[in-house]
């Protein structure tokens, strides 16, 4: 299916990025963070709460240089309550190590906090309901750099409908806060398409240069 037709079929042309408040207006206290975490844990704002084992808030450093954002929890993430576990998570951890970072150095989250059934793509209503949590996380964490992994996360964060391929290898800016944002392949995609690992490595080398 042509790319735009695919987006249209999903209704993604209606995605709207809900901006977080300006960073200078955000008070980063543990209370804010804990309250947000509790809201996510008990959220019933979309139908995905009915099938979850648990919501997957995100994990990692509270003062990260780098925040990695993927699409949604899968089976193992739903079971363990942590994003990017299982084989895709192991590959992400390996790529981080390759540029001298550990998982605990970064913060890792998804645009959806609950697992879509059978790992299907997120629906518009789910994205609309859930992404205010992500924008609040970004505002509270204030990372120096964002890394969107996969097309769904990249197109949502950038509010662009261009292909992932055309979004790679350039520094973008996220929303009004203008936090630098790079785009690369989702590790689950790389497991299915190992030939693209070489291109992904170019993205991670660019990320390492920009972080240093
Ligand atoms: Fe709430 Fe997001 Fe889970 Fe939907 S996916 S129930 S909006 S936390």
Word description of this protein:
The protein has 212 residues and is α/β, with parallel strands linked by helices. 42% of the residues lie in helices and 12% in strands. It contains 9 helices and 6 strands; from the N terminus they run ααββααβαβααββαα. Strands 1-3-2-4-6-5 form a 6-stranded mixed beta sheet, sandwiched between helices. A hairpin with a 4-residue loop joins strand 5 (172-174) and strand 6. Helix 2 (30-41) packs antiparallel against helix 5 (124-141). The longest helix is centred in the middle third of the chain and has 18 residues, at 124-141. The model is unreliable at 1-27 (pLDDT under 50).
Throw out a few tags for this protein:
disordered N terminus, single chain, 9 helices, 212 residues, alpha/beta
């Amino acid at each position: 299916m042509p790319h735009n037709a695919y987006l249209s079929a999903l209704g993604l042309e209606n995605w709207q990025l809900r901006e977080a408040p300006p960073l200078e207006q955000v008070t980063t206290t543990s209370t804010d963070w804990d309250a947000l975490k509790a809201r996510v844990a008990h959220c019933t704002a979309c139908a995905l709460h009915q099938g979850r084992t648990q919501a997957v808030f995100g994990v990692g450093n509270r003062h990260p240089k780098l925040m990695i954002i993927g699409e949604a929890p899968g089976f193992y993430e739903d079971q363990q309550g942590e994003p990017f576990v299982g084989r895709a998570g192991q590959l992400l951890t390996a790529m981080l190590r390759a540029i001298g970072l550990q998982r605990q150095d970064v913060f890792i989250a998804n645009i959806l906090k609950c697992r879509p059934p059978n790992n299907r793509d997120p629906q518009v209503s789910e994205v609309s309901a859930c992404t205010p949590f992500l924008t609040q996380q970004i505002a509270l964490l204030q990372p120096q750099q964002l890394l969107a992994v996969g097309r769904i996360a990249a197109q949502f964060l950038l509010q662009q409908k261009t292909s992932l391929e055309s979004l790679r290898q350039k520094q973008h800016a996220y929303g009004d806060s203008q936090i630098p944002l790079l785009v690369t392949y989702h590790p689950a995609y790389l497991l299915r398409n190992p030939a693209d690992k070489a291109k992904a490595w170019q993205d991670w080398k660019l990320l390492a240069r920009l972080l240093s």
